[in-house]
Every structure is written in structure tokens, then in C-alpha cells.
Design a protein that fits this description.
Length: 204
Amino acid sequence: MTSAAVRRRTPADKFEDRRRELADAALLALADLGYARTSLRTIAEHTKFSHGLLHYYFADKVELITYCVRRYKAACVKRYEGGVGEAATPDELAAACADGLAEALGEAPLMHRMWYDLRTQSLFEPAFREDVAEIDDSLQDMIWRNVSAYAGLAGAEPTCSAPEAYALFDGLFQQALLRHLAGAEDALGDLRRGVRELFPRLVG
């Protein structure tokens, strides 16, 4: 970064940079402990940052957790879609999607566990609902783009709605996550197979 670029940075930019730094440091603690067992103080104990510093940048753990999950899910969507963009046939697209989902789960299962924890908490905690709904919408849109692309490559049309497609893929992913966390060695392979087999069932 040039000195001119540094001079152009505003206090708001620097504030947001600091929030991102704190959130990235807090992610591992949140993923390990889960929602119910965390507070800003316990998160601070698992990072190099003080409780006071976390509280300065985030009003409470709700704000910090939703910020963390938003950042992580946005990164997952970007990486996942980058892996399927070059598919030239229906089978290639289905395989790329299957590999992308399995790799995302295998690389960071605790992060995905945190997402499902947050989504469940939104049933009880109104403060989470808007953020969870927005993240869910982005994931649904991601799945629907791939189902639509598969249908286009197959010369067909989707036979389901976007919410139905998302529910099916999300169900496969969550079940695989549960089995993977329980130590099932075939969980990721079954997820790959399940995703590949699901695509042709959704078009006609």
C-alpha cells in the first residue's frame, strides 16, 4: 500500500479494520465454545485482546457473533462459487458443488457448527433474526444459482422452488456436519455423493 493510499484512509476505515481484526481473532473461541458458553469476557480470555477493547468495538456478544458469522459465511460463498464457475457440463457442475461443500465442511466444521447454533438461537433471540435471515437468503441464492446453472447446462428447467432446493442441500450439509463431528469417516464422502445425486432430481 502506498503512502498516498494510507493518507486516504478515514477514521471510519480504521475503525472497521479493527473490528475485522477483533472478529477474526474471536472466531475460533466462538466456534469452540458456542453461543451459550460465551460472553465478551470469555472471548477476551481466549484472545490477546482485552474485554474493554472488545466492548469498545462491539456493544455485546450478539453484535460480535453476528459480525463474525457474516464475515465467515460471505467468505465461504465467495470461495465456493469460485470453484464451480468453470463447469462446462451438468456432471462437472454437480461434482464441483459437491466438492466445494465437502471441502468447506471438512476445513472448518466448528465454524459451521457455530452458524447452526446461531440459527437455532434466532428462534429464541429476536436480536439475531434479521441477521440470520439475511445470511440464510445469501446461502439460498447461492444454491439456487447453481441449481439454475445445472438446469441450463442440462437443457432443462428446475422442478422446485429456491427455498425447497436450499432446504434439501442444507439438510444434506447439516446431517453431514453432525456425522463428521461424531467421527464418522464416511461423512464427507456421503455428502459429496448426496449432492451429486440431488442435482438431477431437481430438474426436469
